[in-house]
Design goal:
Composed of two chains; the small (or glutamine) chain promotes the hydrolysis of glutamine to ammonia, which is used by the large (or ammonia) chain to synthesize carbamoyl phosphate. Tetramer of heterodimers (alpha,beta)4. There is one protein chain. 23% of the residues lie in helices and 28% in strands. The chain is an alpha/beta fold. 52% of the residues are buried. The structure holds glutamine. Glutamine binds next to strand 14.
Length: 401
């Protein structure tokens, strides 16, 4: 037995040694029968999903509202979540898509001048169930060693739980492999976006003199990506995930942006790959992809994507940019990756993870097309990678010439 193996390990059946403590109002049951008792937060009810962890120390509201977490329950490894409450600005989308959240300690009274609601009330308002009092170190080690499991959170204030039924629900959940979730979180109609990034003095301001027009394909786009594009002088038209290439080109864009998003890129690719392939026939058109957008671009170019053991989710991941030889600290949230050995000859690997050497960026050798696996909009996270939005802008400026 490895020293870090969790003491609750039991496979296949409910861990009968794990007695319900007095006062427990919630439980996390994994598909293999591991049981974690705790206190319920947010909405009463049950949620089944893949259980992943995020190591960021700040930005829980941005993480909880990142649409890429659809189909996932997020374990926060940082113990104190909720202390600054929630507000109306630090959101990546209005309605969160994650299925639930797992915390180490109970939520305290919010202490921040911007807070409008405490996290518990906010979770309830979005019908999200959460659990606190979980030994998140044990759970995180278990995910690290065994990969992200499927699990079920149940929050019942009466303290009555059918553990076997919860385990069966978790085991029956099909898993993210092969799941297209972008269609569930994309916008329903074409909209305009011109709000810029947050400024301490001015807050979010509208863009006044746009220089470029970007069509952003919304597979579950984070707002800070759209804000970052606007801050580079781009008027952004946001289109639904299933928009065709000719509909996109009818907007006469200077460049096309492929957004982040949830689920398996190969499943999303059914409609997105032909769209990107058709865009690629327009040799002058700048294209920029982030995360799911990166994976879809790689698939459209003939590369493969695979599910990772546990993925990358945090705000301190070092990435090397081979085009400058600089290392940047990045914000990440992905569970699939581009198989770098499958990249065709006309595609160059531009970025790698310095944690595990996995692919983090590509560009075409003969076109103004590039993408990254991580999150340069950094919401939450370090700002090192903002230069990528400028790189996209420079490609659009170059095309104009
Ligand atoms: N943030 C994202 O766009 C995630 C992409 C994809 N759903 C993955 O998990 O790898």
């Amino acid at each position: 037995m490895k020293s870090h193996e969790p003491p609750v390990a039991q496979t296949g059946a409910i861990d009968s040694a794990c007695q319900q403590p007095a006062g427990a109002t919630a439980v996390l049951v994994l598909a293999d029968g591991k049981v974690f008792w705790g206190m319920g937060l947010g909405a009463e009810g049950e949620a089944v999903a893949e259980v992943c962890f995020n190591t960021s120390m700040t930005g829980y509201q941005e993480i909880l509202t990142d649409p890429s977490y659809a189909g996932q329950i997020i374990t926060f490894t940082f113990p104190h979540i909720g202390n600054v409450g929630t507000n109306e600005q630090d959101i990546e989308t209005i309605t969160p898509s994650c299925r639930g959240a797992i915390f180490r300690v109970d939520i305290t009274q919010p202490s921040n001048w911007r807070a409008t609601r405490d996290l518990d009330t906010w979770l309830k308002s979005h019908n999200l169930s959460a659990i606190s009092g979980i030994d998140t170190r044990v759970l995180t080690r278990l995910i690290r060693d065994g990969g992200a499991p499927n699990g079920c959170i149940a929050h019942h204030p009466d303290g009555k739980f059918d553990l076997e039924a919860l385990r069966a629900k978790a085991a029956a959940w099909p898993g993210l492999n092969g799941m297209d979730l972008a269609r569930e979180v994309t916008c329903s109609q074409t909209t305009k976006w011109d709000e810029q990034r947050w400024d301490l003095e001015a807050g979010y301001t509208a863009l006044t003199d746009p220089e470029f027009h970007v069509v952003a394909v919304d597979f579950g786009a984070k707002r800070n990506i759209l804000r970052s594009l606007a801050s580079q002088g781009c008027r952004v038209t946001v289109v639904p995930a299933e928009t065709t290439a000719s509909e996109i080109l009818a907007h006469k864009p200077d460049g096309v942006f492929l957004s982040n998003g949830p689920g398996d890129p190969a499943a999303t690719g059914i409609y997105a790959i032909p769209m990107v392939q058709e865009l690629l026939t327009h040799k002058e058109l700048p294209i920029f992809g982030i995360c799911l957008g990166h994976q879809i671009l790689a698939l459209a170019l003939g590369a493969k994507t695979t599910k990772m053991h546990l993925g990358h989710r945090g705000a301190n991941h070092p990435v090397k940019d081979f085009t400058t030889n600089k290392v940047e600290i990045t914000s990440q949230n992905h569970g699939f990756m581009v198989d770098k050995t499958s990249l065709p000859a006309n595609v160059e690997e531009t970025h790698i993870s310095l944690f595990d050497s996995t692919n983090q960026g590509i560009r075409l050798k003969d076109r103004p097309v590039f993408s990254v696996q991580y999150h340069p909009e950094a919401s939450p996270g370090p700002q090192d990678s903002q230069y990528l939005f400028k790189r996209f802008r420079d490609l659009m400026a170059e095309r104009r010439k």
